[in-house]
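hey
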């Protein structure tokens, strides 16, 4: 007998606790300390402000490329807040908020966006391809989905070594169409690796809407196909994101295996500075999502509980703007990476063929003297 499955059988409800007016549901199952909420709000402000400034710099031709996380800041910041600093993070390019949550300086981030000699990765990657070994954040990679198997392998290694930590991998819903998604989830499921697969379902893979990418009910049901616990929640809700990621981490460390998370959000900006979103969606569509803004919702909650007010808001905005402006000015005056940096950090000693190539290039760049 041939059995026909109904694609709606695996429908997942979207967990949400914080309303657009800042009211928290009485059914919220945990308590988040006030200092975490305030730090989370301030970090989202940093993330959005720097995004806006980097977009402007790219439009001016000062930097080469920029990608925005406008409207998706809670996905990165709230999830980072729910994790331990020792946990390993595998971000995509819209998770710069995890860097700021973990204390990455604004100046260092902007050096990276300028790809200058103070960039930790020495300009070897495009802007928005951040990372920090010190903070356990693995550098972003342009190819979509490649970090999913990496995170699964990292989590399995930690399990073997008995480390009480997890690996989290971030990706958009478009990445679930890549083979790496299926290979990574299957490996983690079979090995019961403590991995959290965090999918930001922001509605679009560049210009392709989610409804044209797959016929399943979103991403969460795909976890069931691999025997993985899956949750769907409001990714613009700081409280829901924090609680679900904290729950997923606990389940991973209890030996239950990996967890697939689907954060329902919306990409308010274009895919990148190379994209014109007006060609595939209307202004009215974008406008109706503005009321779900994660920053606005958390601010309203904080104000209702006397944890924030307009005076603090203006003071913080001024501080962030001033620090960012100073960082940009410093980055503008910082030299690009040296020519020799093209040949370093692969071999302990530069082998003769590469040394010969370096010397050959110096004929065209004589101002770059060997150290």
């Amino acid at each position: 007998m041939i059995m026909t499955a109904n694609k709606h059988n695996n429908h997942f409800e979207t967990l949400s606790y914080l309303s657009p007016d800042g009211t928290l549901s009485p059914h919220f199952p945990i308590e988040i300390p006030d200092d975490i909420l305030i730090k989370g709000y301030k970090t989202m402000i940093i993330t959005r402000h720097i995004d806006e400034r980097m977009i402007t710099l790219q439009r001016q031709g000062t930097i080469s490329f920029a990608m925005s996380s406008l409207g998706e800041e809670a996905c990165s910041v709230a999830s980072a807040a729910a994790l331990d600093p020792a946990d390993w993070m595998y971000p995509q390019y819209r998770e710069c908020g995890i860097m700021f949550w973990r204390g990455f300086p604004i100046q260092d981030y902007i050096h990276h966006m300028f790809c200058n000699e103070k960039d930790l990765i020495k300009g070897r990657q495009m802007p928005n391809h951040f990372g920090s070994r010190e903070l356990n954040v693995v550098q972003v990679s342009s190819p979509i989905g490649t970090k999913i198997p990496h995170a699964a392998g990292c989590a399995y290694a930690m399990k073997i070594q008995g480390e009480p930590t997890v690996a989290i991998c971030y990706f958009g819903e478009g990445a679930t169409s890549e083979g790496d998604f299926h290979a990574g989830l299957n490996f983690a499921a079979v090995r019961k690796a403590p991995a959290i697969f965090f999918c930001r379902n922001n509605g679009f893979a560049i210009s392709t809407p989610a409804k044209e990418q797959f016929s399943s009910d979103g991403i969460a049901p795909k976890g069931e196909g691999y025997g993985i616990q899956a949750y769907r929640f409001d990714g613009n809700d700081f409280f829901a994101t924090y609680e679900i990621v904290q729950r997923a981490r606990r389940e991973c460390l209890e030996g239950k295996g990996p967890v697939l998370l689907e954060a329902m959000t919306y990409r308010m900006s274009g895919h990148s500075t190379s994209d014109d979103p007006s060609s595939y969606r209307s202004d009215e569509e974008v406008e109706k999502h503005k009321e779900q803004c994660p920053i606005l919702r958390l601010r309203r909650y904080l104000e209702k509980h006397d944890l924030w007010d307009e005076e603090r808001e203006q003071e913080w905005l001024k501080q962030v703007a001033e620090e960012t402006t100073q960082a940009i000015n410093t980055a503008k005056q910082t030299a690009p990476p040296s020519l020799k940096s093209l040949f370093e950090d692969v071999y302990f000693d530069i082998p003769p063929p590469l040394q010969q190539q370096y010397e050959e290039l110096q004929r065209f760049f004589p101002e770059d003297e060997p150290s």
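DSSP finds twelve helices and seven strands in the chain. The beta strands are 88-90, 167-172, 195-201, 204-205, 208-209, 229-234, 259-264.
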